## 1
Amino acid sequence: MSAFILYCSLGLAAAASLDYSGRPTIDDLKKFYGPNKAIFVLGRSFSPQPVKGYIPHCIWSQQDFLDGHTLMLLEAYGIGTEIVYYVVNATLNKETGRDAPPMMNAALARYRRRTNADDLQGDHEPPRIRRCELLFWEENKHLIGGFDLCTQEFDNLCPYGKRQC
């Protein structure tokens, strides 16, 4: 009887290990950016542009509006002694593949390239650049470490990026 119980428990463990659902889904992303949750940037693969001679610091986001695949974030950062608030409109898209993360495209703009004052060339899309950020909730700001898996995922997705924070 004890051998049968051991076999059943091993079978359950093996079944559980094959139940991998891949990276987070769009629904997980929506839960992450839940209402009234302040989210801070721990690290990023790109350097923010200086504003008024200062590098932005203490960057955070909070959901302002979420409807279907449209997400509006209230964001802020500090420069010098002032805090700048702004709104980011983002579209959430599901990438193909089981292990593909959801994508958040923010402020994708179309622009027209001017070769001279009178000649407008057709619409062009700016080049897409993968930018990665490590984010954490405000309620976890007391944690010093414990982001090892997140850091590893960050390095896998942005192998040539350097953490700037």
## 2
Amino acid sequence: MAPFSLMTVGANLLARSWGLFSTAVTVRCSCVVPTLKNFSTTAGGPPKRPLTAYLRYVKEQQPIVVKQNPDIRVVDIVRKIAQQWRTLTPEEKRPFEEASIAAREQYKVDMKAYQDQLTRLPSLQL
């Protein structure tokens, strides 16, 4: 801990004496550096990965379990939901699995469109 604190004290002294980290220097530097171009037309970036069947079940059951047990810890809530998931029959799990499969297929389509968009942009700018 001592060497680190000595380094920070030294950096603070340099900053104060030379004014390296003053707002005036920051403003001057920000005016010189040009803004970066964004090569993507979407602000969100790549699509998010879809939820698995289990995570869909957890997302649905968490508010219910919290409402039934308001004083229980988060870890215990997850344990309780996991135990419920293990006791479900395949027929009860089917809606969650089908939703997961559909979301996975949509993700593949969205990811392909995103990758095509990324590969087309550099060639358009030449």
## 3
Amino acid sequence: MKKEIVFTLLFVLVISSFASAEMIINQQPNKVHNIGDSVTIPVTIKTITGVSGTFSMDLLCGTKQINFYKNGVNLVYGEEKTFDASLVLTKEVVGENVGNCKIKGILGTEYFLTNEFKISNLITLKPNTEQSEFEPGQNLLIYGDAIKENGQPANGFIELELVIANGSSNNILQKGTINNGMYSMNVVLPEKMKAGKYLVKLNAYEVALDNTKTNKGFVNYNIQIKQIPTSLEIILKDKDVKPGNPVEIKTILHDQTGESIESTSVITIKTDTLEIPEGAGPIEKKTGEYFKFPIVYNEPPATWTVHAVSNELTAETSFTILENHEISVELVNQTLVVTNVGNIPYNATINIRIGNISKDFDLFLPVDGSNKYGLKTEHAGEYEVELMDGTRTSKFKEKVVLPESRIPGSTGYAIRDFSESTTKEFYTRPIFWVFVLLMIASLIFILTRKYKRRKEMGVSKKSVFKKKFSEPKTNTAWENRAIQLSKESKLKINNRANLSISIKGNKQEVSMANISVRNLAELQAKKSNAEEPLQKIVNFAENKKAFVYENQNNLTFILAPSKTRTLKNETAALEIAQNAKEILSNYNRIAKHKMDFGISIDYGSIVEKTEGGVMQFMGLGNFMNNSKKIASCSQGEVLLSEEIRNKLTNVRTERKDNERVVCYKIKDMKYHDEGHSRYMQNFMNKKTGEASGGTKYNTLPPKEKSQNTNQNTEKSTDPKSLIKGFY
């Protein structure tokens, strides 16, 4: 029993000698360390009985163990010591050993292991890709963050490659730096870079003192290069067009590299007098598709122009309508009818053959003119008849059955030219000379009778002519109606109005439409054709018997009862305003330089006096200024004042928020009775007529129309059409 106790005590003493020191890890390594990081492992060794030996630390990565720290230990009873061991993760130390590792501390026969951590050589790139579409020639700013896997910002270099084509020497290469985890590079894209997707490659890395690359990272992403319209081309199938054939036109919209772009274009054809033929535009057509416009057979020779607009690009070309010297021949009841189907007068010598006998005729025909040649033969039968034109080209050749006729001469055939015989035979007929003699006798009788009457009344020949010509008739109002234009204005205005500061005249309640073109001076400086739509509006308003007042960038149309002969001019003012809106909107649709305009309608009082077709007027109260303020608030729509809104009872309006002036925009229309519906239908018919040929319609209701058949017709007003486009 005593022996067992002794052995137990000896065993405890031996064990306590081996466990005489305790190793405490003060700080575990981080979960991730990148190459170049310094790993510090502070360890405290505390002994109970005293310890002496060597303390070492090794890096364990997989099956590899690398010693990186050794230090001697000599501690007495109860003493402790802290060792600050550190490891710099360089390639010389760790080599290519990346992955999960541990650190092992060893003292004598005792050891400890740290938590597992990862050694990494990865850099994560986070490029900013908010903008993915770019235009050719644009600056491409590439920037973002570069963070190592340990969460620390990288410091190194970054290389950019913009791949134009795989393996191409045209690829864009650029090198930049990474500072505190951020990089930024500016690349100028080529002006003629083809539209499409392109690959952007980014490679980041850090370098050691020996210039070897340590941590690395890369990222790839795509950018899109836009297709930018740079030029518009007009292609004519034939630049020389024969009358009767269509001219075929198409447009090609090219991008920065000359490639075609699918889009639409507006094509307009103009004659040599700058007129637009019916159906010649403006017409919208897809690019690449032919637009066919027929040229009538008798269109005179000329050079016409083709204008195209697409994506704010314009193009212009021309084609020539050729001369066409041509006739057609048809047989009608043994008579050859020759017609000029060319586009110039036909002047040539033609040849007509019957059987074996032929004869030449000098033929001159205006465009669409015709002449007849009667065919006769002494013996009835079937004969070959041929007509050849001036170039001896056969235009008619057929077997013709001719009846028997009396033919003077010995040939047995006769061709009667009606263009010559008609005049000659008429003057050789006796009836013509009988008619001439009767006319001469009647004239002598009338003159003799007048002479006798004058002699009896004692009126001299001189006094008769004096009475006849002493008082010439004139029409002062119409002679003075056209007023000479001022030097500043290019508009042709017949019913002109001039503002007067002080005037004595008649007070009238008038309806007024005002158009404000805010950028008129800019348009005139750019030599645009802004006056053309304004002239159309002036013509329309003057047809409504409106006076026109010009003031800088404002056109004011005044409907005065003294001119219109009616007190209800509100609807006419609304029609003028809506017509102006449609004309200007259509102009902006195709024009390169847009017109910034506003339209208002107002009702108020003026004092006016009309002399020589010109109205001098003065606005009462704030009438004129109020109308201009409302127009300045308009952004292309028609706005109504409070006063005229109360007059237009069939118009539903909505107040427009504005601090400067009270105004209303049109929301809807109301209809009242059957008569009013007929009134609106007349206006719709009128619009259809204008679209097909410009026909005017009477605006009077059925009962009034029958009582005023001798009055001039005017355009009617359809409220439904007036609000077209307001929404």
## 4
Amino acid sequence: MGNSKENSFSFWKNIILAIVFFSVTPLTLGASLYSLLSFNNNKLESQNLKLINRDTTTVLGARIYASLPIDFPSISEKVQSSDARPEIIKNYLLRYKSPLVSFAGYIVQAADEFNIDYRLTTAIAQQESNLCKIIPPNTYNCWGWGIHSEGTLGFSS
């Protein structure tokens, strides 16, 4: 019983909303068009008045023209581009207090040399040794290369 009352109420609510929408929409469109047309007419009239005033007014006295300066002041700057990748890697390494901070430029240079993404070696070092903070003693192996159960590969520096 309550469900039919809700359906009836919903039906009449939708009918009323449709009637309001279809009566208010044309009124709004009509008012918008009227204001647009009256604005354009006022704009044309004001332009015509300016032309009439310019033609009918006379200026007494002499017209004086000033010459323009030969040199105009200007501001010029030379924009130089540089590679931000070493700085990005350096900031990342500083954020995690890595001992690899001084090698940020070399990491990018090696990535370019071997045609790999410059972030890859840093990501591997993050995963394998917490950016070279946890490595086997005296191995200098931040990337986990050759570390397995049979032994550990180390580097001289």
